[in-house]
Design goal:
Blueprint: H1 2-22, H2 31-49, H3 55-67, H4 76-85, H5 91-116
Length: 117
């Protein structure tokens, strides 16, 4: 039971990351989506560099604890989604790279805004 829920949360987390990375491709001329994406980017920077963990990460850890599984006993989807979302790199590197990517995308919005005026 927890394995399917765990996979669903990990899949949502992966979709959230894809939205953060690629949302700017879908926001031109859509002010509501632009606002949502900019708020998502700001949240991404705060989640990566701030002292607060991502709520999705907390939920994933709780589900793993409830199911009592480890990376080698989880289902295929959970195991591989976990590797995509949490690469085997130092936490600080992942945090700074993630925040940097968000900052670059925020720069895209700055450039769009500058081009309008």
């Amino acid at each position: 039971m927890y394995s399917a829920l765990e996979a669903a949360v990990l899949a949502f987390h992966l979709l959230w990351i894809a939205w953060i990375l690629l949302g700017w491709l879908f926001t031109r001329g859509r002010p509501v989506l632009t606002g949502i994406h900019i708020a998502s980017l700001v949240w991404g920077v705060v989640a990566e560099l701030g002292p607060w963990p991502c709520p999705l990460t907390i939920l994933e850890q709780w589900l793993e604890g409830q199911s009592g599984t480890t990376a080698y006993h989880q289902g295929f989807l959970v195991h591989y989604l976990d590797k995509v979302i949490y690469p085997d790199l130092p936490e600080a590197v992942v945090g700074w790279v993630g925040a940097g990517v968000c900052a670059v995308i925020l720069g895209v919005y700055g450039r769009r805004l500058h081009a309008r005026f």
